[in-house]
Design goal:
Layout: H1 16-20, E1 28-30, H2 33-42, E2 45-51, H3 56-66, H4 69-78, E3 79-85, H5 90-104, E4 111-115, E5 121-125, H6 139-152, H7 154-171, H8 185-199, H9 216-228, H10 233-251, E6 265-266, E7 274-275, E8 278-279, H11 280-297, H12 300-316, E9 327-328, E10 331-332, E11 342-343, H13 351-357, H14 371-378, H15 409-416, H16 420-438, E12 446-447, E13 449-451, H17 452-468, H18 472-488, E14 490-491, E15 496-497, E16 500-503, E17 509-510, H19 520-537, H20 540-557, H21 590-605, H22 609-620, H23 622-627, H24 633-644, E18 647-652, H25 658-669, E19 675-680, H26 687-691, E20 706-711, E21 714-715, H27 722-729
């Protein structure tokens, strides 16, 4: 590419998404006072465009509209245009997405919203085609109509925006209504289970027809429901639903069989054709879920999928300083000489390409069988491509194959007269060759922004996998990332988290000129990560930092009147609403996770006011939890933990002793959702002993590592056998 014709203010930003638009002919501003002042001074409507760097339809709208000189001139003449990276500013995104969903019945990205100069929304939508088509107004038409309306009916638009804002303020409020007690756990969990059971796809797993998202929050709920109802038919069904879904996802095209990790979601019912972007938050949550599936089932298949995810993240989403990048794009150039990017180009295959790469005859198989024949049969490859045209409206995948494991190893082995073990080794060799070949293709865009919240989710993934799979290397990687957060996304002077940092030139880590302060989700996911890391490593520094951050979260976000936490802190005049997320989606909402965080914090500190806060959050969301708990499966799960009380599993012993290690292996190998683990190593000056004086009264029995099961700081009789401890942990 030659010298760009246009350069706007976004060139000075750090966000990869904003930088993608720095050479549009649109006079973009970042979200901030300069843009707001211009809108007021010139009495212009603000056009707000919100997206993220790996969003397919954001790329489409940029290509069609924001790169158009003619449309750019209309935008510059009539509007003050603002670009926002929703991953940097989830607070701004949430306010205006609430408006778009309320007024249009749908939402998504790119989000397009028109605001008055005082930032009140009055019109909005998502993607607009550039010109009118199929009875739908094009972007150019919409721009001109809104400019005309502002010119001729300004007072009506201002009045309308005021009314809309007041309505949003009332409908989005979450607070305690009269009663101040949490909803009954049994009813909430049973209703959530029934709602998930009704929406479950018996054949392919998952909880909708299409599109299908991984939604780890649903699977975590089902695991906890099973753990609390192990001996009932409902408990057995909950476990079957979760494990079947995880197996079908791992076999599907949503799972990258060559380059590891999981794509964003499946466009069809069968987990076959995905939207190909890969998000850090999915990898972190899925690594933890597959590790739990292994803990529960003992099936090595689930452990291998967890390792696969962590291999992908270690190789492709890791910064050398220790942090994790946000995402990889869906679109890339098919070849080094291509002029246009295509969705999935990095990941899909033509049949003839596979035959050329895998020509070797297979020993012991039916005569004339090549590696390519075996591989193509196992992964559903067809000569003319295996993508249904209905899943490929732009014909980007015509003639291509998305790999999907359609047979078991046993069936494919029988088909070619091979042993399953031999077949497994052959498929591994094929995947290795294809990985080498794929590395020659142009890679998709990498969003090298590093977010505190998503790094927290990924630290939890590494820490939980490290504990469940007894892989110390994963625990070490989690600790490396936590140290990165403390260095780059924490301000020791204020004691506060920052939202984001960025890979700079020469692989340095850079910060914005004015750093973005952490939001509620940053605190919540980092605190969860530090608790998970403590339980995996038993290094008390992580515990101490987690409790400090919990105090800071209370100070910045707690709503003392209506209870629960606001998503953003007070005092930002550009934010029209302080909201509380009320839906667990691709990521759990922060208030859902914080219930369990607060209960864990109370167990590690003795501060029982945190238990009270957890109950107050459940009370604030009581109506929603009782009517549609399927909207909040993580919070529904937390009601069970709240009502069953967390058990403190205390191991007294020398951290280096084999008997202590055996006890710890035992605790970590059992899935028990209502336990916290702590090591009493006899160091009475240590952080834990200062927090929990009762630990001083616990001692080793007969000089051996000894376990105590405590509830509300009252402990059971001591246990010195790992087998006996296992029985206590899994009733």
């Amino acid at each position: 590419p030659g010298v760009p014709r246009h350069t706007n203010r976004l060139i000075n930003e750090k966000s990869p998404y904003l930088l993608q638009h720095a050479h549009n002919p649109v006079d973009w501003y970042p979200w901030g006072q300069e843009a707001f002042d211009k809108a007021k001074r010139e009495n212009k409507v603000i056009f707000l465009s919100v997206g993220y760097s790996t969003c397919h339809w954001c790329h489409v709208m940029e290509e069609e509209s924001f790169k158009s000189k003619e449309i750019g001139e209309i935008m510059n003449k009539h509007f003050v245009c603002i670009k926002v990276d929703r991953e940097e500013r989830p607070d701004v995104d949430k306010v205006y997405m609430t408006f778009v969903q309320a007024t249009s019945g749908g939402g998504g990205w790119p989000m397009s919203v028109w605001l008055t100069p005082d930032l009140k929304p009055f019109a909005g939508g998502t993607y607009f085609p550039p010109e009118d088509r199929f009875h739908r107004a094009g972007f150019r038409t919409v721009l001109l109509r809104i400019a005309e309306q502002w010119e001729e009916n300004k007072d009506a638009l201002l009045e309308s925006s005021h009314r809309i804002l007041e309505a949003l303020r009332q409908t989005s409020e979450v607070c305690v209504q009269g009663q101040e007690s949490p909803p009954p756990s049994k009813e909430v969990m049973d209703t959530c289970f029934q709602q998930l059971s009704r929406s479950y796809d018996e054949e392919y797993g998952g909880f909708s027809q299409a599109p299908k998202f991984p939604t780890p929050v649903n699977l975590n709920f089902l695991f906890t429901y099973w753990a609390l109802h192990r001996t009932t038919p409902e408990g057995a069904r909950a476990l079957q639903m979760a494990l079947h879904t995880l197996k079908m996802m791992a076999h599907g095209g949503i799972h990258d069989h060559i380059g590891q990790g999981f794509h964003r979601y499946s466009t069809d019912q069968h987990w076959h054709v995905p939207h190909f972007e890969k998000m850090l938050y999915d990898q972190g949550q899925l690594a933890a879920v597959y590790s739990r599936a292994f803990q529960i089932s003992g099936d090595e298949f689930f452990a291998s999928v967890a390792r696969d995810i962590l291999l992908y993240v270690s190789r492709d989403l890791s910064d050398q300083a220790g942090g994790f990048y946000s995402a990889e794009d869906a679109d890339s150039y098919p070849t080094t000489t291509s002029k246009e990017k295509r969705e999935g180009a990095f990941c899909v295959w033509e049949a003839k390409e596979l035959q050329v790469l895998l020509p070797d005859p297979v020993k012991g198989a039916t005569e004339g069988t090549t590696l390519g024949d075996v591989f193509m049969h196992h992964y559903g490859v067809k000569e003319n491509g295996n993508v249904d045209p209905m899943q490929d409206p732009h014909e980007e995948l015509k003639g291509k194959n998305v790999l999907i494991a359609q047979c078991s190893l046993e069936l494919t082995a029988a088909r070619f007269g091979l042993e399953p073990g031999q077949l497994d080794a052959l498929l591994q060799e094929c995947r290795h060759r294809l990985c080498t070949a794929r590395a020659q293709r142009p890679r998709p865009h990498l969003d090298s922004k590093m977010l505190a919240a998503w790094n927290g989710l990924m630290i939890s993934g590494f820490a939980q996998a490290g504990a469940a799979l007894a892989e110390q290397g994963y625990v070490h990687r989690a600790a490396q990332a936590a140290a990165f957060l403390r260095t780059h996304l924490f301000d020791p002077d204020t004691g506060r988290l920052l939202r984001s940092c960025y890979r700079g030139k020469d692989n340095s880590v850079e910060q914005s000129a004015v750093p973005i302060q952490g939001f509620l989700e940053d605190y919540v996911f980092v605190i969860q990560a530090l608790f998970d890391l403590y339980e995996a490593s038993l290094e008390q520094d992580w515990l101490e930092w987690a409790l400090h951050l919990q105090h800071m979260q209370d100070k910045l976000f707690w709503d003392p009147k209506g209870f629960a936490y606001f998503s953003s802190e007070a005092g930002d005049p550009s934010l029209l609403l302080r909201l509380k997320g009320d839906q667990d989606g691709a990521e759990p909402t922060a208030n859902s996770v914080t219930v369990t965080n607060l209960l864990r914090a109370a167990c590690y500190s003795g501060h029982m006011d945190w238990v009270e806060k957890a109950g107050q959050i459940l009370a604030a969301f009581s109506e929603r939890l009782q009517k549609i708990p399927i909207a909040l499966p993580e919070m529904a799960r937390a009601t069970g933990i709240f009502h069953h009380t967390l058990k403190q599993v205390v191991i007294c012993g020398d951290p280096q002793g084999e008997d202590t290690k055996e006890m710890l292996r035992c605790v970590r190998s059992v899935f028990s959702p209502n336990k916290v683990l702590m090591l009493a190593d006899g160091d009475s000056a240590g952080f834990l002993y200062r927090q929990l004086p009762f630990l001083s009264s616990l001692e080793r029995k007969d000089g051996k590592a000894t376990a105590y099961l405590c509830s509300n700081f009252t402990c059971s009789l001591p246990v010195t056998s790992a087998q006996e401890l296992r029985g206590m942990l899994s009733p």
